[in-house]
Amino acid sequence: MKFLAWAGAVSLLAVTTDAQTVPRVDPQAERVLRAACQYLAEAPYFSINAEIWREHVNEEGEKVQFSRSMEMEIRRPNRLHAEIASPHSDRVFWYDGKSLTVLDRKQNVFSSVNMPATLDETIDTARDQFGIDFPMIDLAVSDPWTNAMAKVITGRYFGLAPAMGFNCHHLAFTQENIDWQIWVQDGPQPLIRKFIITHKNEPGVPEFTGLIREWDFNSRISANTFAFQAPPGAMKIQMHGDAAQPGEGVPRPTGATEPRSTR
Amino acid sequence: MPMIRIKLGRWTAIWLAAGAGLVCLPAQAQWGSIRGNNRAEPRGNSQGERMSRAPEVHAERGRNETRVEVPHEEHREVFSRPEVHEEHRGPSEWEHRRFDFDEDRRRGYFWSGIASGMLYNALPSGYVPITVGGSPYYYYDGAYYQREPSGYMAVTPPIGAVVPALPPGSEPVSTPQGVFYYGAGAFYVQQPQGFQVIPPPLGATVSYLPPGATQVYLRGMVYYQAAGVYFMPVMQGGVTVYTVVQP
User: Fold this and answer.
1) Rounded Cα gap, residues B99 and A117, in angstroms
2) Coil, strand, or helix at residue B54?
3) Which of B37, B168, B235 sits opposite A178 (nearest CB)?
4) Residue A263's pLDDT is what?
5) pLDDT per residue over B13-26, tens digit each?
6) Distance between CA B242 and CA B233 in Å, rounded?
7) What residues are paired with A214 via a beta bridge?
8) What ranges do the domains of chain A cover?
9) Are A228 and A95 in contact (CB under 8 A)?
10) pLDDT digits (tens, 9 = 90+) for B78-125
11) Contact: A237, B33; criterion CB under 8 Å
12) ipTM
């Protein structure tokens, strides 16, 4: 009898533990997000035209938003081209299945590093080894659903709401480290139109926002799009993480050529 | 009255400076994707800026001392022998991520539009008079001026100058010699009287160039030159940053 009581207590504990670890996601939220993720995962190639916003909390506690336009082309499983630009900054990324190249158009310098054979691995390698942040790269991973739900605690559905001129399903998810919201277009094409990450554990709770103006699943993307060609006069520079620390073994510059203003 | 000194660890010092509105703290975990945020923070990778040492912070640093005489020679001692107090902290605290919007952020500061050689009819309201090596200068929010017959000319931050506070938006910079501060194109070390301009420390990596820097090509490599100092561009976190190299 004592054994049965003990076994019952253990079973109850196990059920309780499971209930705590299984995400509590509203079925409607799950249905909408699954559809959006499946639509993305089944697309062999696509491109987006978007706007991204990042909030910065400055030393006085003031929150300021900064924006960039973003164009990204993806061809699964191992091609990426993205340009993230503003009047002050313009960076372009090429991944061709073998290497990742980053071009700073403003300074006309670029850097290349070898990468794994798939986009998923490259995203993680670029992030972990070189600190490179690809905004909204969740769209490009091979399994968007598993990627999105990996650390979700709760998910809720808020019904239809306008976003970027479309009627969208508004979903909100919580995790330990972040909260995120997503707006998925209503209708036969469940396209993601808006995406917000709230960094709730950071001072000032800054947010990242992505607004997707255009999706294109039809236009074939030329192989040349993913092949880096250095612009005229572009100079190759080191990428931290694969080279000696800067300043070490650097020859003393002598015989400077004609200076060119950078402003 | 004797000055009270409180010795603090590296990151504590930086947080105190940030709390005082002196240092712009780096964002640590703000990735623009779920996947990026879900990855465990890399520990001890080589691209992150490391806070290996920090100059000490003094509880009283003479905020009201606006006129300080500093001989030119003094900076050499400060630069070569910063006071260092080691303290073990988690690697995640040391990471210093770079963002492309840092460029936008700087444009909101007064000093961003000031370059050496610009002439002004009047000084900005709230300027601080300082003396460096017997020469009078005027300081305001990261910009230095000298009197000219026709007005006030913006000048390169004079080595040895001591100002009561760091320029707005200054960032901590790790170097082989320790942690210093970089703001408005100049490097600073903390002193009892305030913050002193020092020569650019070799190996220091900063997120932007001093105003007026020019691009030069040497033996097939690109550098930037400002007031006789060379900066080598490198890619860090997907953005271009600049490391002081031996000229």
Assistant:
1) 27
2) coil
3) B37
4) 30
5) 444 444 444 454 44
6) 4
7) A49
8) 5-12+24-236
9) no
10) 233 233 333 333 322 333 567 778 788 888 899 998 989 999 999 999
11) no
12) 0.85
Q: Does B233 touch chain A (CB under 8 A)?
A: yes
Chain-chain contact of B35 with A245 (C-beta, under 8 angstroms): no
How far, in Å, CA of B46 to CA of B83, rounded?
A: 25
Ordered DSSP codes for B11-27: HHHHHHHHHTT-B-PPP
Give me the pLDDT at residue A241, please. 64
pTM of structure? 0.79
| 8 A C-beta contact, residue B7 and residue B58 | no
pLDDT in tens, A213-263: 999 999 999 999 999 999 999 999 999 863 333 333 333 333 323 333 333
Q: Provide the pLDDT for residue B107.
A: 87
DSSP secondary structure code for residue B211 in this structure = T
Longest dimension (CA), chain B: 60
- Helices (H) then strands (E): counts for chain A: 4, 15
Q: What confidence score (pLDDT) does residue B178 get?
A: 86
pLDDT tens digits, residue range A107-163? 999 999 999 999 999 999 999 999 999 999 999 999 999 999 999 999 999 999 999
Nearest Cα residue to A46 out of A178, A255, A241, A214: A214
Could you please state the CATH topology (level 3) that the domain comprising A5-12+24-236 is classified under. Answer: outer membrane lipoprotein receptor (LolB), chain A (2.50.20)
Q: Report the pLDDT value the prediction gives residue B105, as an integer from 0 to 100.
A: 85
Name the nearest CA neighbour of A150 among A19, A25, A263. A25
Are B36 and A137 a contacting pair at CB < 8 A? Answer: yes
Is A26 in a helix, a strand, or coil? coil
Cα(B197)–Cα(B160) distance, integer angstroms: 5
- In whole angstroms, give the CA distance from residue B141 to residue B184: 8
Residue with tokens 């194109």, as numbered in its chain = B185
Least Cα separation, residue A13 to chain B (angstroms): 28
Q: Tokens 């207590």 appear where?
A: A9
Q: Cβ of B8: how many Cβ atoms within 10 Å?
A: 19
Q: Which amino acid is at A146?
A: T
Cβ of B24 and A66 within 8 Å? no
Q: Which residues of chain B have pLDDT under 70?
A: 1-29, 41-97, 247
